[in-house]
Amino acid sequence: MSGFAELGLSSWLVEQCRQLGLKQPTPVQLGCIPAILEGRDCLGCAKTGSGKTAAFVLPILQKLSEDPYGIFCLVLTPTRELAYQIAEQFRVLGKPLGLKDCIIVGGMDMVAQGLELSRKPHVVISTPGRLADHLRSSNTFNMKKIRFLVMDEADRLLEQGCTDFTTDLETILAAVPSRRQTLLFSATLTDTLKELQGLATNQPFFWEAEAPVCTVEQLDQRYLLVPEKVKDAYLVHLVQSFQDQHEDWSIIIFTNTCKTCQILCMMLRKFNFPTVALHSMMKQKERFAALAKFKSSIYRILIATDVASRGLDIPTVQVVINHNTPGLPKIYIHRVGRTARAGRQGRAITLVTQYDIHLVHAIEEQIKKQLEELSVEEAEVLQILTQVNVVRRECEIKLEAAHFDEKKEINKRKQLILEGKDPDLEAKRKAELAKIKQKNRRFKKKVEQTLKRQKAGSASRGHRPPRPRSQELRAEASDSRCQQPHTDS
Ligand SMILES: Nc1ncnc2c1ncn2[C@@H]1O[C@H](COP(=O)(O)OP(=O)(O)OP(=O)(O)O)[C@@H](O)[C@H]1O
Ligand SMILES: [Mg+2]
């Protein structure tokens, strides 16, 4: 098997890898490092936890050591915590070089960042929003000579999700030279491949792992079909059982909103589970502190929104629990990828209500694997049901008293004003969009019902199609006694 030395890296870098415990290159590193060293653009698509970071950090450090200057490389990532993690990799691997790095993310002092940028660091690691702010407002630095532009989680940077990076990326791309090497990495590149190919035009090298399943083999993937209103009791039961069965344990729970994240954190703490929260309504310093406490196992549970779903590498995580079924398969892939990293074992449990079954099918279709049902002691859940519901309600009341929703509204308005938008106009636009979406949903439902009727007709004529798993799950769901509508808690 080929080692790092055979990939064209200098002996000091090979020694750094050895000291960090990276003995043999992973497949994505074997594929991408030589191509990057040859001067080609690179698109690397490999499973979560497969070592994509070192696949770009190592060749960049190699090239930097041959011709050191600042600013040599710009790395963009969608989240602040990930920017710090990547900077750490550059720092430890590039220590013998005396590498100067600089992290430019929102929520931190802009003046201090400006000063650091003007000192020409070798590598800048940044989230797009804050870097674009600096580029628009300052002339004390420039990016005209950068040799490498890296986009980690490139598909997220390009898609228009809840945070839209498009205008900031335009500002950044206008500030970097067109003669550069562009390196794009993610575990889910394929649906944004066209846009990405437009960015990486210099003899692009595309590396994708050939694998029948998109998630890692060591990951045990389960679902738990639960009625909406008893979901939290199941969550408490799952955490309690895991705590009882393991001495050394660590869990990430993903939620769909900041508010749910905050309420569940308060609730789990009331049950004496060592829990910290991570979501975008927290101050940046609190976010870093929460993550540090979780990483050092002072707190065993991290409850987070999707701000923690991409890139974060916390080797101790054994279980990921999806409190809500992710609306998009690729969100699922990244969330569950926070465990079972670098060849370790891990487990993912997704709570599925009777309203989410179609989402599970979309996930299974994309990952090309069926989730297995998790069995739990229902009697034990029933025992704690009332207590959990009462505690949750108490937490909701407490949060309402702390004006959580108002703070969120104020933050949103502030953000829109900063982006140069009119908050009232935006609200109108959103309402109109919601109306259109609702109309589309109604139309889709009608089509589905018609198709169902047609299918039922053909079945009654003796022409019976095999029963797909979706129907099995639906049948199970209709057995569940609770018919509570799906509300965002
Ligand atoms: N060659 C190697 N040998 C052993 N461990 C490695 C090697 N390369 C990387 N690792 C380790 O694997 C873990 C995961 O690496 P990394 O965070 O780069 O994964 P990734 O592919 O970027 O995942 P994600 O898609 O979630 O961002 C890290 O702890 C890293 O130190
Ligand atoms: Mg990564």
From TrEMBL:
Keywords: ATP-binding, Helicase, Hydrolase, Nucleotide-binding, Nucleus, RNA-binding. Residues 218-382 form the Helicase C-terminal domain. InterPro entries: DEAD/DEAH_box_helicase_dom (IPR011545), DEAD_box_RNA_helicase (IPR050079), Helicase_ATP-bd (IPR014001), Helicase_C-like (IPR001650), P-loop_NTPase (IPR027417), RNA-helicase_DEAD-box_CS (IPR000629), RNA_helicase_DEAD_Q_motif (IPR014014). It catalyses: ATP + H2O = ADP + phosphate + H(+). Residues 33-207 form the Helicase ATP-binding domain. It comes from the Eukaryota. Residues 480-489 have a biased composition (Polar residues). Its EC number is 3.6.4.13. One of its GO terms (cellular component) is nucleolus. The keyword Membrane does not apply. Residues 436-489 are annotated as: Disordered. Residues 2-30 form the DEAD-box RNA helicase Q domain. Residues 436-445 have a biased composition (Basic residues). GO terms for molecular function: ATP binding; hydrolase activity; RNA binding; RNA helicase activity. PROSITE patterns: DEAD_ATP_HELICASE, HELICASE_ATP_BIND_1, HELICASE_CTER, Q_MOTIF. Pfam families: DEAD (PF00270), Helicase_C (PF00271). Belongs to the DEAD box helicase family. DDX49/DBP8 subfamily. ATP-dependent RNA helicase that plays a role in various aspects of RNA metabolism including the regulation of mRNA export and the levels of pre-ribosomal RNA. Regulates the stability and synthesis of pre-ribosomal RNA and thereby regulates cell proliferation. Also possesses antiviral activity by recognizing gammaherpesvirus transcripts in the context of lytic reactivation. This is Probable ATP-dependent RNA helicase DDX49.
